[in-house]
Amino acid sequence: MRELALHILDLLQNSAEAGALRVELGVEEDPENDILRISVGDDGRGMDEATVRRVLDPFYTTRKTRHVGLGLPLLAAAARRCGGKVEIESAPGVGTKVSADFRRSNIDRAPLGDLPQTLAIFLAGHPGLRLVYRHRVGPRDLTFDSDEVSARLGAVGFDHPLVADWVKGYLSEGLLNLQKG
Amino acid sequence: MSHLKSLDELEKIRQRALQETRVRQSGQKTQVVVGMGTCGIAAGARETMAAILAELGKRNLTEVMVTQTGCIGLCDREPLVDVIKPGQAKVTYARVDAEKARMIVAQHIINDQVIGEWAIATR
Ligand SMILES: Nc1ncnc2c1ncn2[C@@H]1O[C@H](COP(=O)(O)OP(=O)(O)O)[C@@H](O)[C@H]1O
Ligand SMILES: [Mg+2]
Predict the structure, then answer these.
(1) CB atoms < 10 A from the CB of B19, how many?
(2) Pocket around ligand 1 at a 6 A CB cut-off
(3) What residue numbers bound the domain in which B94 lies?
(4) Pseudo-torsion of CA B5, A172, A41, B47, nearest 10°?
(5) How far apart are the first and last CA of chain A?
(6) ipTM of the complex
(7) Which of A7, A67, A101, A166 is the most exposed place for a label (fewest CB within 10 A)?
(8) What pLDDT, in 10s, does the model give residues A99-131?
(9) For the domain with range A4-180, which CATH number is right: 3.30.450.40, 3.20.20.80, 2.50.20.10, 3.30.565.10?
């Protein structure tokens, strides 16, 4: 994928498909130690140990519509290319956490990309799901909790075009502040 | 940080959105479903969905529900978009980029004209 944001979207979709009601997205940029870490944790159906072991294998999927799963192996390959790795913790009935590490300065590392747009669109497509997003760059951080937004919107959903636009603008502004400090 | 100020804008958005829906009669919604599995995402489904939301917003069409689905096994034809109008059969469009997405909103969702050229047979 040409943006890390697209890998993130793919992970968020996995969580949503696993029936998660609450998803936590973490992006940690640690310039000092040259690490960029993405993590997506959810309270979805989870996987047993045997499944977790197989899931990084490109020929594994539980879906019936296709014979290969692609998302996690693609992410693992991208991380490996950048001197990093993917780790999966999961428990059936509890949830799953997928973490991907990258060397931040590696020339093969895809740019973070349009994360505001990505999250606006994910939220628009998943009414009722709570997303908590934390982004850290060195000592500074940003937190976005979709429940705080929902509480102010009442019956109006994230799929309302004005809301999707607001999410995009709000996060773009937040990220800009975060990057420039 | 201007966080609190920005969150406060939501109140205006809420009021505007609720006014719009009061104008319309609360009939059944048109449903749009965008394929957002790995292949869809890699093929540009994020931009497709963004274009649909933006076009609906521009035309003030808030009685349309846009959701997402995972892989349905037609990976080489992603991004896939389903349009389901109340009382009509589902139409699935293949390889929908942002441009096509805007046309689908204008022709199919608004003017009720299926774009047969881009539709594929499902089931
Ligand atoms: N967050 C998650 N919770 C539960 N199961 C998951 C999660 N993420 C992935 N899986 C399981 O791993 C499989 C492979 O995932 P992935 O590589 O993304 O391919 P795909 O989603 O196309 O099947 C999924 O089909 C699913 O069974
Ligand atoms: Mg997947």
Answers:
(1) 9
(2) A 14-15, 18, 42, 44-47, 55, 61-63, 69-72, 96; B 37-38, 71
(3) 27-122
(4) 130
(5) 28
(6) 0.90
(7) A67
(8) 999 999 999 999 999 999 999 999 999 989 999
(9) 3.30.565.10
